[in-house]
């Protein structure tokens, strides 16, 4: 295996971990990102929001995107 192929193979192995680190460092997460990082589905988050039982969230505009902070998710999980 050549050096370039080896580097590409190693990069592929670590790609999911790098993505998780990137998400964990974000100040605000979309529902899809929450699902990737915490395993809580978009539909579950929507259901919890409708019942006022989920993590604290921010709506970016009237009828706009909803985002969550990692702190709010962690607090809710505890």
Commentary on this structure:
The chain is mostly helical and 78 residues long. 60% of the residues lie in helices and 5% in strands. The chain is built from four helices and two strands, in the order αααββα. The chain has helices spanning 3-24, 31-38, 42-50, 70-77, and strands at residues 58-59, 66-67. A two-stranded antiparallel sheet has the order 1-2. The longest helix has 22 residues, at 3-24. The N and C termini lie far apart (47 Å). The model has no long low-confidence stretch (mean pLDDT 91).
What are its keywords?
two-stranded antiparallel ribbon, 4 helices, 2 strands, mainly alpha, 78 residues
The major beta sheet can be summarized as: 2 strands, antiparallel
Distance between the termini: 47 Å
Oligomeric state of the chains present here: single chain
| Strand order in the largest sheet | 1-2
The helix/strand order is HHHEEH
Count up the helices: 4
Shape: elongated
Radius of gyration, rounded? 16 Å
């Amino acid at each position: 295996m050549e050096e370039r192929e080896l580097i590409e193979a190693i990069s592929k192995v670590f790609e999911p971990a790098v993505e998780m680190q990137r998400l964990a460092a974000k100040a605000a997460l979309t529902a899809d990102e929450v699902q990737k990082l915490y395993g809580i589905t978009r539909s579950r988050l929507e259901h919890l929001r409708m019942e006022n039982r989920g993590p604290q969230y921010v709506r970016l505009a009237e009828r706009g995107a909803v985002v969550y902070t990692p702190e709010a998710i962690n607090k809710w999980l505890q």
